[in-house]
Structures are given as structure tokens and as C-alpha cells.
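Q: How would the C-alpha cells look for this protein?
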Amino acid sequence: MGAVALAHLAVLRPGDHLVSSEWIYGGVHRLFSQEFGRLGIDVAFVNPLESRTWKRGLKKNTRAIFIETPTNPLLRVIDLEPVAAVCKAEGLALLVDSTFATPLNLRPLEQGADVVIHSATKYLNGHSDVIAGAVAGTESVIEEVRKLMQVWGQALDPMAAWLIDRGMKTLAVRVERQNATALAVAQWCSRQPQFAAVHYPGLPSHLDHEVAKRTLNGFGGMLGVELKGGARAAERFLRAITIAAHAPSLGGVETLVSEPRLTSHAMLAPEARARAGIPDGFLRFSIGLEDADDIIADLAQALAQL
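A: Here is the predicted structure in C-alpha cell form.
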């Protein structure tokens, strides 16, 4: 959240207008909708898949566009290049949060973005023992972020910085393993009748599979599944699994599973979550470094108890 806030404050001023994808982290949505207004910054939210909405959302005082890709928890993959073209034509800054992808699977700067944001708590650190953020971009933007950090106070302590540096040394091997394992688990899940749907960009059935193949270097370690039977089935399933820890966060060496209805989308009514494509019974997995066969065997025994 500190990285998102300072990255935007580095390019926006009171009286400016920001256009944001509506498919973003709940904390960022609150930042934009509740706090930015107090700073004199207006924000409009648009459907990121409809290219015309970006232009329609622009005003004379629009200064930037913000996108999160892949999205949470449906793992929708946004094609950045058309949006980057709009930004270039209109003289706007394009800011992208690609935490789920990691710099190994997606490098937005190479696809036209001006600023990239990561929750370093997740894959960059990789060991679930740090809370931190990261901003990457041109020297002038990063210098402005650094100045703001000295005022607003989001500087890391030395130990946290060291832990992230340690994690970055294994980022490539961790992400490569998580890409392969998540794909294997997703393919297995797609064949199980107890799942109403499986959300993973590496599956041909995913709505953005073609975009993912063209724009990503790997499909990532995040996986969404919808259990038939809703919340009750999810509760029984979560009691039965033994490898994945039922906990929030993601991107670590251990497999985690969470329920958006109780975490990222808890503020929405069940009907609103269902309209957003996140029905009760939706589980989000962050695949770790365990053996793929072990994870699949654990999921199989848990399904057998439903």
C-alpha cells in the first residue's frame, strides 16, 4: 500500500484525475475512492477489458492510468500495449501492479508502462516474513518516490531490506518451479467434477489464455477454483487438506489457500460477489515449492471427503 500510494503521489497533484481499472486490490480501491479525494485527486474506475472505456474515462485533467494484472482472484490478464498506446498518445503515465506475475513472468516496462509496483511481501521476498513494497521506473519518478518516502515514512528497516535481498537471490528458481507446479495442479483440477470452474491463465479454457500466452513468460503460481456446494463445501474441504495452509498472503515457499469471501472481497454481499465472478465456494491457491504430486494427492483426498 505504501508503494502504491507513493508511486501515484509521485505523478499526481491536487486537481488531477486518475483512471483506474475496477479490478484491483481492495485496499487500493479504498485508497483511491476514499483518501485520494481528500487530497484533491479524482479517480474514475473502468472495465479494463473494454478498450474504449479507457478513452471514454479520460478528462482534460487526467494524468495517469492504473492497472493490476493478473487480477485477484480471477487471474484475468490485461493486455497492456493498447492501454500504453492511449497513454503515449495522451501524454499520460501508466502505472502497473504486477505482483501476481513477478518480474520473471511479466515486465510491464517492456510493454509500455512507466511505473511498476510490487508487493514485495509476496514473491520478491518469497518466505512470508516481510511486509514491504517496491516501485520501479525512471530515475526522475523514483527520486520523487524517495523524497515522498522520507516525508510519509514508508522506508524499510535494514533487516527487512536484507530479507528481501535474500529472497531475490532465489526468485528465478522459485518462480520457475511455481509456474510448473501450478500448471500441473490446474490441469488436474480442471478434470475433477467437484470443481465448477478452474481459473488459471495457462489453461486453454481461461478467458485470457491467448493474451497470457502472448504477454507472459510464465503463467504464475496463483490458482483459483470454484467448489460445487458453495461455502459449506469449502469449509469441509479446507478442514480436510493437510499441505496447504489456510491463510492469507501469497507468493511464499509454502502453498496457501484463502477464501475471497472472507478476505479480499469480504466487504461485498454474496450476490455482489457472485456477479463479480467470485461465488461462495471460490478458493484461491498460492502454490508453493512442494512436490506437485503431493499437492494433487492432498487435494484428491480432501475432495473424496466432500
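The chain has two domains: 2-168, 171-304.

The two ends are 38 Å apart (CA to CA).

Upvote if useful.
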